Amino acid sequence: MPNFCAALNCSRNSTHSVLAFFRFPRDPERCKKWVENCSRSDLKDKAPDHLNKYHRLCARHFEPNLITKTSPFRTVLKDNAIPTIFENPSLKRSNNEKENDAPEAKKSKSDSQSEATKDDTEATTKEISESKNGDQADSSPQVIDEETLNKEFLKSLFDVVVMMGTQNIPLHGHSDKEPRSKSFTPSNFQALLEYRINAGDEFLRKKFEGSSVNLEHCSSTQLQQMLEVIENSVREDLLAEVKEGRFFSLVLDNLVEIGGESHLPLFIRFVDKTNCLREEFFGFLLFEGDVEAITERLIAEVTDKCGLDMQYCRGQAYLCSGVSAMKVKAVVARIAELHPLAVLTPCSSCSLNICLANTMTFTGVHLVMSTLKKLDVFFSKSQLLQNQLESAISIYYQGHEEKANVLKEACYSKWTEQHDTFEVAVDLLESLLLCMDSIHDNEDHKWSDEVAHNAFVISEALADFEFVMTLVVLKNTLSFSRAFGKNLQGQTNEVFFASSSLTAVLHSLNEVYENIEVYHEFWFEEAVNLAAALEIPVKVPRLYFRKRPTSGEEIQPETYYKEQVTIPVVSHVIKELSDLFSENHLKALKSLSLVPAIMGQLKFNTAEETSADIYKDDLLNPDTFPAELHCWKIKWKHGTKDVVLPSTIYETLQLSDVKFFPNVCALLKVLYNLPVFALTNDKCSTAKQRLKTYLEDTPVHHRNKSMALFFINCAIKYDLDSMVEKYLKMYPDSEPSENQD
């Protein structure tokens, strides 16, 4: 909507003129002088804030030396500007009286207006011409619809912010190094607004021209308010199906740094209307304070911000590593105490053995895991580097082409994240060290200094006996859980039968622990032989001697690594597996016998009632569950000749007649929420990949929690009108642009 001049007898507006329009100042004394000079007695009782928000004076009422044009679209007043150029009111009234008395007066008035228009045209080169009838100035001033103008202005701002978020454009400029002040407006945001003005956004243009000071289009405070509104809109749309289905699980990812603070990325798993298992990103959690504080913050995030009920949380998983993993595990355990059905499970996106190793805080394990990550990054940068590794494998495995081909194929399959990572690492160790040394030597100047340096750093780690010994211990210890973990990431029937094999896994590990002396002797000998082949000296880590005072007794490497690596690793794996597979978790996995294919494998001799008892309150009608379960078994036992039984929860839920078994359907949906199950398809698992892309592509100082949320959930359809209404409701007293004098 246009701006209208508030001066008496001045009919100029921004639709028919490109003159600048200035807000009334909020300073009471200056505002009073403006009101007096413009001869508007009806405005004397209005507060300065009201006048500043709803009334303007055009540039024609100010001396030229009080006006400065700072850009093609920016005209500002000096701080002490007072309007002094106004028409004589008495003369105007006299002309009006003459107009009523005689027709000749109308002609005289028309001539007078034409002269005034001519003067305006000479004074401002961009003034729009009067209408042909010459009575444009006589038309009565229109009602100023400031509300509509503000809404359209806000809509333009929201549109730009959403676009920047979905395209991962940082809010602030790439060259900005100074700390942001209260009035700082990100330069990228400012530049896109100016581009939009040039492209023809009239609402932005009018708002920009009508401001009376040289401020940006949108203050940092208002921008933060807008980000909050968009965040709420994204979550509302994202979690609508979660609220409808009630049940969900939480997944906590690795720590990330945003704004100089550590945050936990939060994902939610749920079964949508099409019975697909989805995983969506819904925000970051500040990882600061003790366990109790973080737990309260997480629950508040889920309940207050997302509007979900933690009573319906059925599963939890975390992907953190190192020291932070222990703290996150304590948070998850605390939530499980408050909500026992929110069972801790492994996450389907991470192999069990990698998950177990990541949660260890031992120095040697940290060295191994960090080196594996460096290797993954190093070889992913260039195919030439991958080719160099293949050449090293061919050299080392001469005469063993079959083994060499297996290792080469493994190098293309994310081998650092697989169930057999540590077995492959041991087999590749000689080839890796040969490859790194060759790249570091760089005799033919084939590699850049950066690549050569990175190769040197990795080779130093690989040539450390602590790395070799820890790698061998991890390989042998986690070999007992390798098949078990692989089944957990398999089909539904494999997950079911894996739950029954946990006892055997723990029994084997406990046997190792009870005979640790014997097992450690074999493992140490294996590590020594591997080190000898690589010409790596067997020694105690230098850090050990720096931490321990000289006692006069020299500790032997075999004794040191038994106490500091073998025993801690074995005991940690036993404890972690016991914690991951609690009684409630195992009961949930045994309830998978409801899946028809598993029922068939068990010859329909199952006891789901006992295992499903923990979910009794989640059923639609618990009293009828036994009878319904009997009918469910009969249906698949006698009515499915030559029919392939559904083998997954998803396939079972897609059956047209599953709706006639409401309790079975409800229980399967609850189970499907658990993080241990693989997502339905790739379309349901894009959130983690988009988070990874955002973190890789966005420098730390450019990261923004809100913008990350928009980028990761870019598929959501944004309703700009709804956002504007929410903004005005949340901040009714906030001016869309703080262009105040």
UniProtKB/TrEMBL annotation:
Key words of the record: DNA-binding, Metal-binding, Zinc, Zinc-finger
Biased amino acid composition, Basic and acidic residues: 94-135
Pfam families membership: THAP
Keyword Zinc-finger included in the entry's annotation: yes
Manganese among keywords: no
Domain of life: Eukaryota
SMART domains noted in UniProt: DM3, THAP
Any one GO MF annotation of this record: DNA binding
Domain (THAP-type): residue spans on this chain: 1-86
Region span, Disordered: 87-145
Entry protein name: THAP domain containing 12a
Species annotation: Cyprinus carpio carpio
